Amino acid sequence: MNVTLHGKTRHYRTVAFDTAKNAVLLIEQRLLPHEFKIVATRDYRETARAITDMVVRGAGAIGATAAYGLAQGTRAFRGSDLEKFFRHVEAVYQTLAAARPTAVDPVNAMNDVRRHMASGETVAEQQALALAAAEDFANEDVRHCEEIGRHGAKLIRNGMRVLTHCNAGWLAFVDIGSATAPLYAAQTQGKKFHVFCDETRPRSQGATLTAWELAQQKVSHQIIADNAAGHLMQRGEIDLVIVGSDRVLGRTGEVANKIGTYTKAVLAARHEIPFYVAIPLSTIDWNLKRGFDIPIEDRHESEVLGAWGVTKSGKREYVRVANPSSHHHARRHLPSGRTLAATART
């Protein structure tokens, strides 16, 4: 997408790779919308931490980051002993796979990289194939999002009011996004519509990321409290819901996404509002047989008990919001097609 900074507009990808420095280049999403910064992770462990700490987040984006991280780790190996190299690659793979367990894109991406590597006969050949495969995954992620946009644009009609949840936009993929792809395609076609962005507690990706994206793209939008969606639906003020997903089970169609997605799906069904999940192929899990088996990520209770923001002086600070002696017990993700209570414990 295009980003305008200090009056100058240029195109960025969420995830890229610096071949000369063997570094993964990421937009530091925790600083948005107040500061736009590109950071470089210098080795695969740093890349894994960037995924865990949500420097980069979103299914496609962490898939591409893991693919680049695997290539980064393989390229850092010194020597020609294939057996030692294979052990090293497995360690890199496991480190990156454990960074965010709920999303399936990183595992699918790295499996794809390893399949391509297998045709190399030497360490050097496999290292080169790994980077080429990671680049292919990133480019394919963009193509899939473009295709989602082409297919989904027909859903968007003039005057529509669309609800989103969390961020499944350009920042959640290498470019364009999944849930936002139909919106951007419809905008290109000259359609006029309005987007309601759920704030998406506890990390507020809707308020900080989706809203920032839409503002950069000059799409008409407003931020609403998560619990306001039902009120708007009841009043007939939402015509369509589009969300993304961390994992969709190919066998059952069950969807796991940011906490709160299930609530929106139930509300949409109650009010007979069309509800769509926009995903690329890399988000499909063909192995798991039921939503309850999806691994759920545990995150720190500070995400719910307080919030990050920017003070009047421009300093980024964390503030405690909740009662000082209280603790949090809730879950972060859930299979939105199955259950209200599949979750992340703190």
Structure description:
The chain is 36% helix and 18% strand. The protein has a domain at 2-147: Up-down Bundle (Four Helix Bundle (Hemerythrin (Met), subunit A)). Helix 2 (59-76) packs parallel to helix 4 (105-117). Strands 8-7-6-9-12 form a five-stranded parallel beta sheet, sandwiched between helices. The protein has a four-stranded mixed beta sheet with strand order 13-10-11-16, with no helix packed on it. A three-stranded antiparallel beta sheet has the order 3-4-5. It has 346 residues and is α/β, with parallel strands linked by helices.
Supply database-style keywords.
346 residues, alpha/beta, Four Helix Bundle (Hemerythrin (Met), subunit A), five-stranded parallel beta sheet, 18% strand, disordered C terminus
Low-confidence stretches: 331-346
By CATH reckoning, the class of the domain at 2-147 would read Mainly Alpha
**CATH homologous group name of the domain at 2-147:** translation initiation factor eif-2b, domain 1
Mean pLDDT: 93
Radius of gyration using CA atoms only:
20 Å
Number of strands: 16
Largest sheet properties: 5 strands, parallel
Oligomer: single chain
CATH architecture of the domain at 2-147: Up-down Bundle
Percent helix range: 25-40%
CATH topology of the domain at 2-147: Four Helix Bundle (Hemerythrin (Met), subunit A)
Q: Beta-sheet strand percentage?
A: 15-25%
